[in-house]
Amino acid sequence: xxxxxxxxxxxxxxxxxxxxxxxxxxxxxxxxxxxxxxxxxxxxxxxxxxxxxxxxxxxxxxxxxxxxxxxxxxxxxxxxxxxxxxxxxxxxxxxxxxxxxxxxxxxxxxxxxxxxxxxxxxxxxxxxxxxxxxxxxxxxxxxxxxxxxxxxxxxxxxxxxxxxxxxxxxxxxxxxxxxxxxxxxxxxxxxxxxxxxxxxxxxxxxxxxxxxxxxxxxxxxxxxxxxxxxxxxxxxxxxxxxxxxxxxxxxxxxxxxxxxxx
Length: 262
Fold this sequence. Notes:
78% helix, 262 residues, mainly alpha
């Protein structure tokens, strides 16, 4: 009887664990709902890559066959999933630091990682929606033939591939003020996409850009996305390790900045 009573006491380890899990889940739910209710944020993130793919991957690539549409499905998929990571973390974190929301969340009794986990799950959810939207367009309008395993692999690649860009966005969000975050992230997002070969295949770019393409995480995610749709048969482990290392380094740098400067 004493054992049962101790397990159900509010201060017992079981209750604390439940409350911690509940706090993480509630913060993740509220963060996703907050962004889903902001169409000014969500619609450009989802429609911008879809518009690009419709124009270049469907309409302009019809003369080049289904392989061009398949190739651009992977590339514009990577272009699409970068956005929720960079802007969902970077802009919102910078604005919330300026507005004092981050300071407030530190004062309330919640796990310190719940705030960032909520943003991460939000970014992964939006990245998955972007990939699904592009897959629907590719299969219906672009006449791309993909197996269920290939479509699932591309969805998984996009959903998890957003994480390095979450880390980069979080780091940028700790460096600059809220009003300057969108412009700074655009200066990172668009040039990185171009120099990684997402808009044009790398062989069409100048040779010096081809040499430095492996510097960018978007290049390595693109290699994984191309492998998912059956257009890259090279080794994948180096790309996975580089993306994991990139995410870890920028997450640690961002966490250090947040501890020191809030």
